[in-house]
Design goal:
mainly alpha
């Protein structure tokens, strides 16, 4: 029973991160056409929290982190234009297999994609905690 629960949690986490990926892309795209200082993220945060009151993760701070996470991994134009289905099979797919907190810790401490993917893959392979 415990194994089934763990698989369910991992699947939910993966889908959440895939959603965050798409949300990050949308944020970047929408911010290109918004006027600087008009409070885009603040408004988006309020709108998402209103639309999905049962979900967490739509604070303005977390939306900034989602944007930062997406930008970090999508700097390569070929990666940023991939459909989510293609991402599942790319070198980036491991980022969807670790918790959100791990992802944020890794991008905040790593200087480049190769370094970050080393830690992401090691986290998946060795079940590293955020502190490692």
């Amino acid at each position: 029973m415990r194994q089934v629960q763990l698989k369910a949690v991992v699947a939910v986490n993966r889908e959440l991160l895939l959603f965050y990926w798409e949300l990050g892309a949308d944020i970047i795209e929408k911010q290109k056409s918004s006027t600087w200082g008009e409070g885009f993220l603040k408004t988006l945060s309020k709108d998402l929290m209103s639309e999905f009151p049962e979900m967490k993760g739509f604070s303005q701070t977390n939306l900034k982190l989602i944007r930062q996470w997406y930008q970090f991994y999508s700097n390569d134009i070929s990666i940023s234009q991939q459909a989510v289905d293609q991402l599942r099979e790319s070198s980036l797919s491991p980022i969807f297999n670790i918790p959100w907190g791990h992802n944020i810790a890794i991008i905040s401490k790593c200087k480049n994609l190769d370094e970050a993917l080393f830690y992401v893959n090691s986290t998946v392979k060795h079940n590293w905690s955020r502190n490692v």
